[in-house]
Amino acid sequence: MKISPLLVTAVVGKPSEEGIAPRFSASRTIEQCGGSFIGQTEVDIKSPNFPDNYSNNLNCLWVLQHDCAESWTISAWHFHIERDGSCYYDSLSFFESPEVPLVVGENKFCGESLIANPVTIFGNELNVVFMSDNYDTYGGFEITITANLYETCDSAGDSAGDSAGDSAGDSAGDSAGDSAGDSAGDSAGDSADSSADNSAIGQCGGSFIGETEVDIQSPGFPGEYGTSLNCVWVFQHDCAESFTITPRSFDVEWQFYCNFDSLSFVGSLDFPRVPGDNKFCGNSLSSEDLSALREPITFLGNELNAVFKSDSGTAAAGFDLQITVNLYDICPSDSSSDSSSDSSSDSSSDSSADSSADSSADSSGADSSADSSADSSGADNSADSSADDSAGDTVQTASCFDGNNGGCSHHCSASVCSCPPCWTLGADGKQCEFEAGKAQVTCSGAGAEITIDKCALVGIDQSSIHLTDTTCSATEENADSWKIVTGFSDCGTQLGFSEDKFTLQNTLNLGYAVVGGRVVSRKYEIDFSCSYNNIATASSTIQASNVVFGDITFDINQDQPAELSFEFGLSFYETDAYTTQADLTNGAFQPGNPLFGRIAPTSALADSLEFSVGKCTVEDKLISESLVILDTCPVDGTNFAFQATQSDTTAVEFSFEGFVFPTSADDTTIDISCEVNVCPNNSLECLKLCFEG
Predict the structure, then answer these.
(1) What separation in angstroms does the CA of 169 have from each of 138, 181, 194, 404?
(2) Domains in the chain, please, with CATH?
(3) Does the global pTM surpass 0.70?
């Protein structure tokens, strides 16, 4: 009789239907807390999360503008906000400019007070501010705001060369031609408007659409600002790649978390504010005030909100800033976007006032010449060709100023999402992914390795390409690629176990890209994982071609094609000292004698892994007879016993009494197979150990 010493290998199942798929952590929200509506005659606004309760600590601003608006009518279809006599806790307010006093029941509302009758606010600009404190929340509101237009529009914008129709078209997502024309100094009328409107000195908030440089100061500067201020400045430009904020003077009451007074910069008003990152306080002349704004900072996107808040206590000298728009070399808005947005804007705001305004402005030739000049220069065409071709036929309309970047994971401009080089738009036309082969994960028995083509990370500092643990940063694989390596227990790697599989999980972090001294991309986080089949089996019948022993490499955007397997060896020894291997071939095995087996990985396991032996079976394949001798616990009558422990990181040793079946041939070969569970350390659910009392 012979015993076959068999190789312990892994059983490969189907690729996991679940697991952790790579994704972008975009740090965004589906709630819209604010927005900008230029040239629109009717707008519906709802509180974030409506009809469910709104959240605590909201500070939302909606800005509505129309050159031909005489007034605005607010009609409430649903209104339920926390009530108190002065509307101090939660409130919804309406005003033409932030200096207008708020009067409860007149332009500031809470409870259910707005339901009874529509409210009218005069002027061609309306600011809607919703604030909630950190306590009770309610169902919120759903309102419709209607612009009441002059019968004949005769605005300053018309005489200067900007009609209401063109302004609406420009703001709604004009074209590279329009935007480039505006940016270059569009017309004499535009220049006059820009020079008149490009500062907000002493004002508590304002809206600047299409401007390339704006000066803002705290109210009262250089004297002290007032108490209980809540000022919001909104900046938007279709062709903006980013905004640079340059402080000339900065002195805002200091507190460690900037909870008293603060100046914050956000892409949307519900975006998190982090002291020293996008929230500032303190005195720039004091080295101890770490959250003071001292150096120029850059924020990506084509919309920026500057929010200044002061409490009811101490005030300071305030701030003096310059905000500069950094424009794309070629504005990523195409001619189709231009014509569709102009058309929809003209039709949506079509009235005798618009017609008159359009006619007046067009006849002056101001905008027309700028558009024509920009279009003839090829700006639209080149932008069209440079806008991401990789999306194929997938073109999704995006509202870039919705507070959610239009749903785009990277760039949003002129209602179109686009991607950096070596990235491509996904099937939804909004989320960017690495191009195939540009970023790959290699999973192995030692951990995971990420390789990224340098073309996808132009301008990103090497140290800012790292895993969850920032010390695990990229190294140069070669002239064309970066590499990051992690084991099972370093770099912030997490191990999880579910349904006979365990996963290695980590996050690839990509820092800001800086090109030509300008920040041209956001920070990104991409989760990735390696999946392992934790069941290994010692059986000659398992040695099939579909068993994966080697490494698996796949795109970081894709799911892992199959679980990775571990390889183990099964050996028999002459005694329980486990020093000399036994030769059990050619009839050397005799029934009734003890057999001493040892199972060990063919390659050392990572320090954070261990394995257990869970089930062993003796089989005579010639007669199709088998007997289980270990089923989590030893089976009675087999004298099966572990030498030390059932689990270990290096080897598990056991013994049992040898036997054959009554109908076995004298020279039969007996197969012994054992299932092995490979697990994160101390994972009892995975190891499945015997706990007999």
Answers:
(1) 37, 14, 18, 21
(2) 34-151 (2.60.120.290), 205-286+294-327 (2.60.120.290), 402-435 (2.10.25.10), 437-533 (2.60.40.3210), 540-545+563-686 (2.60.40.4100)
(3) no
